[in-house]
Structures are given as structure tokens and as C-alpha cells.
Amino acid sequence: MATTALQGNTVHLTGDLPSVGLAAPDFDLVGTDLGSVRLADYVDRRVVLNIFPSIDTGVCATSVREFNKRAAALENTTVVCVSRDLPFALDRFCGAEGIDNVVVASAFRSEFGNDYGIEQADGPLKGLLARAVVVTDAEGKVAYTQLVPEITEEPDYDAAIGALPE
């Protein structure tokens, strides 16, 4: 079981991120239109999963803005931003911010957190997702992962984008 930290305090997760080289677990998330968002929807595309606790925090909002900006220049790539926020909150944020280069999806009724080993098992944000990035190739295999060691810090955008397979 992996750990991260929240303001210096250890937070245990429900598992570990998927291993590089293995198939990423499929998921069934809820999009802002209340329809399904699945990894299988992006066959033959590279996928960047930007995983975070809540869109209503500064660092989480910044990560969505930054990946939105970078996604505009990426070919054959979809960035999916995932949290346990309700789809309505995600839609409100994206509308207010002009976010249109990423897909936002809610894991509120999904096993995504456990399947990706990223659900917080304890601490004040227990039940929410920790901050992480998972990159898959066009065949759905994991090419890169980052569990951000401190939830209040941003992910390494350059490493995630740099890990996209050709």
C-alpha cells in the first residue's frame, strides 16, 4: 500500500498505482453530461490521467488549468482529469474557466480509486483521491506514473508530457 502526505502528515492509500508496462485498468467514470467516460473510449489514443482530490482547491484547479493549456498542443492524446467531485461541480468549474481541451470526469460512483490504488484510506480527506498522474500509450499500457508525495503540491507536468510514447 502506497503512502503520500497532506501537509506533512502521512496518508495511506488503498493500494498502489498500476505498474508501468502493464495494461491500465479500465474505468467507468461519470462525465459532465452524466454519460460514461471509459478508458476504452480512447482506444488508439494516448491518455494522461490527472488525478486529484477536489476541483474546489487551489492546487487541483491549477492542475486542470495547466493540463488544459498543455493538452491543446498534444496530438493523438486525451487528458482526463479525475476526482470524486460531482459532475455538476466539474462542469461549473470548466464553464467558468473556459476549460475545453481536457475531459473532466467524476469517480463518485466508481471503483476507480481502488482500481488505481489512489483512494485515501485515512487522514482528513479519507475517501477522496490522492494527487497522481498516469500516462498510457495508444494500446492502453501504462507508460508513466507519478504519485505526488505531498497532496498540496502540483504534479510534474513536464515529466508527464515527456513520458508520452511516440
From TrEMBL:
It comes from the Bacteria. This is Thiol peroxidase. The gene is tpx. Residues 18-166 form the Thioredoxin domain. Thiol-specific peroxidase that catalyzes the reduction of hydrogen peroxide and organic hydroperoxides to water and alcohols, respectively. Plays a role in cell protection against oxidative stress by detoxifying peroxides. One of its GO terms (molecular function) is thioredoxin peroxidase activity. The active site is a conserved redox-active cysteine residue, the peroxidatic cysteine (C(P)), which makes the nucleophilic attack on the peroxide substrate. The peroxide oxidizes the C(P)-SH to cysteine sulfenic acid (C(P)-SOH), which then reacts with another cysteine residue, the resolving cysteine (C(R)), to form a disulfide bridge. The disulfide is subsequently reduced by an appropriate electron donor to complete the catalytic cycle. In this atypical 2-Cys peroxiredoxin, C(R) is present in the same subunit to form an intramolecular disulfide. The active site is at residue 60. It is an enzyme of class 1 (oxidoreductase). It catalyses: a hydroperoxide + [thioredoxin]-dithiol = an alcohol + [thioredoxin]-disulfide + H2O. Disulfide bonds join 60-94. Homodimer. Its EC number is 1.11.1.24. It comes from Gulosibacter macacae. Belongs to the peroxiredoxin family. Tpx subfamily. Keywords: Antioxidant, Disulfide bond, Oxidoreductase, Peroxidase, Redox-active center.
